């Protein structure tokens, strides 16, 4: 029997920026937190960052929520991080591992952690980056290390290998949680749980697929055939000699 995702030993965070969808998912007991980023916010039509974020924090005060800085300058990132952190005790500040100039954000992360700010180090794709971040994280301040396993897989590399390495690196820090980011399919949640990741962040569209867990494959085959047939009929395709 295939386990339901909410029965797995891993925290599921919803990844998105659609307010109604976030509020709906917040009512689900198996959704343990939320992540978002400027790209998701733009796609969702968010134009006022502060207004959106404060509304979300007010509506979801009891689950971790990660909001990201959006500057390329480290001094400005620090300013933004302090503002974001002030929105609530459940707020984590997402800091990309580098800026667009390939300059490491690790010194900034160290500075923020020293101030007691909960950081979500994001856009990480290499073991070296995990090692660098791990060195500056505190054993007294909660933190998240987001490794983009899905993007690693997009390059043809096995993300499980990288996530296992990351888990080993962070093992000595009880306050640092490893997050499997950018999943491409529902099965990635099971992979993340097997590796021992603390968190997997899942887009809303993939979360909807959880309804089919354990679904009979013969029935799914038939559903697929019906879909192809129905769509062909709706369009009214015909074949003729040309």
At a glance:
By secondary structure, the protein is an alpha/beta fold. It has eleven helices and eight strands. The chain has one domain (5-211): Aldolase class I (TIM Barrel, Alpha-Beta Barrel), CATH 3.20.20.70.
Task: Explain how this protein is built.
By secondary structure, the chain is an alpha/beta fold. The chain has a single domain, classed as Alpha-Beta Barrel (TIM Barrel). 43% of the residues lie in helices and 17% in strands. The chain is built from 11 helices and 8 strands. It has helices at 19-26, 38-43, 49-59, 74-85, 106-114, 127-134, 149-154, 159-170, 187-195, 204-208, 217-235; strands spanning 11-15, 31-35, 65-68, 91-96, 119-124, 143-147, 176-180, 199-203. The protein has an 8-stranded parallel barrel, surrounded by 6 helices. The radius of gyration is 20 Å and the shape is globular.
Q: What is the CATH topology?
A: TIM Barrel
CATH class: Alpha Beta
Strand content: 15-25%
The proportion of residues forming helix, as a percent range, comes to 40-55%
Average pLDDT works out at 96
The CATH H-level superfamily is Aldolase class I
Using only CA atoms, what is the Rg?
20 Å
Largest sheet composition: 8 strands, parallel, barrel
Low-confidence regions: none
- What is the number of helical segments per DSSP (H or I, 4+ residues)? 11
Oligomer: single chain
- Strand sequence of the main sheet, in spatial order? 1-2-3-4-5-6-7-8
- Secondary structure: number of strands: 8
The termini sit apart by 52 Å
Shape: globular
Give the topology string: H per helix, E per strand. EHEHHEHEHEHEHHEHEHH
* Overall SS class: alpha/beta
Specify the CATH architecture.
Alpha-Beta Barrel
């Amino acid at each position: 029997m295939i386990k339901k995702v909410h029965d797995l030993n891993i925290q599921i965070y919803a990844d998105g920026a659609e307010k109604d969808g976030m509020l709906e998912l917040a009512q689900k007991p198996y959704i343990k937190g939320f992540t978002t980023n400027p790209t998701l916010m733009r796609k969702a039509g968010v134009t006022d960052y502060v207004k959106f974020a404060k509304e979300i924090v007010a509506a979801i005060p009891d689950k971790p929520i990660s909001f990201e800085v959006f500057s390329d300058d480290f001094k400005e990132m620090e300013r933004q991080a302090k503002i974001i952190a002030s929105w609530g005790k459940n707020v984590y500040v997402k800091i990309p591992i580098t800026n667009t100039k390939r300059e490491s954000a690790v010194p900034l992360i160290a500075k923020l952690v020293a101030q007691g700010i909960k950081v979500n180090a994001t856009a990480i794709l290499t073991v070296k980056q995990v090692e660098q971040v791990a060195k500056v994280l505190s054993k007294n301040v909660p933190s998240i290390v987001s490794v983009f396993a899905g993007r690693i897989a997009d390059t043809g590399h096995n993300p499980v290998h990288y996530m296992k390495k990351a888990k080993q690196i962070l093992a000595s820090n009880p306050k640092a949680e490893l997050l499997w980011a950018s999943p491409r399919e529902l099965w990635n949640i099971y992979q993340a749980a097997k590796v021992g990741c603390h968190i997997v962040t899942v887009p809303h569209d993939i979360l909807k697929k959880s309804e089919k867990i354990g679904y009979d494959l013969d029935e799914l085959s038939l559903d697929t055939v019906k879909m192809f047939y129905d769509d062909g009929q709706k369009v009214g395709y015909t074949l003729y000699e040309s």
